[in-house]
Amino acid sequence: MEQISKDSLKIVVFGALNAGKTTFVERLSGQELFLKGEYESITTSFDFVQIKQQDYLIHLFASPGHRRFSFMWETLATGMDGAILLLDSTVGVTPVDHELIDFIEQYGVPYIIAANKDDIFKMDPEFIRKELKLSDNILIGNTSALNDDNLDNLLDKLIDDINKRNNK
Ligand SMILES: Nc1nc2c(ncn2[C@@H]2O[C@H](COP(=O)(O)OP(=O)(O)O)[C@@H](O)[C@H]2O)c(=O)[nH]1
Ligand SMILES: [Mg+2]
Asked: What is the pLDDT of residue 166?
């Protein structure tokens, strides 16, 4: 029988339209997606890459941001080990972000917040914590998907949270 050498984790990146989800998974994978689920630059289906991190094979999905495709959130979330909510720092915290947090919390998996486009505008993590009513143990980081800034580090921390959860 074939040996499976790596454990795998399913992680899903959620976020509003234009928050930078496609860019985020592209930078993390170091590849431009060959097949993007995009039509006129709006992600209509999901993006998917596989990356190796901390001895895990990570199946990293990005959800379609447009509200009209929210029916896909549940499909993507099925079996996820962790989630990342990407905020667009140039826009701030929006109703869709509230909706996404409520959605993610139903699954009871570790998740982190990435305030993206930090290269243009810096959002204060504590402002985000208050706005989204997040407890202190939820990590909030500032990222620039465009400049590949803080992506690996945040993913590592999410994996640490997942490990902690699974070793309980
Ligand atoms: N300045 C800046 N632009 C970004 C960043 N991340 C994404 N973008 C840009 O924002 C736009 C939307 O990004 P995209 O990844 O398609 O967003 P998605 O709709 O969430 O998948 C594109 O023009 C990206 O180049 C970032 O960290 N900084
Ligand atoms: Mg996209």
From this structure: 85
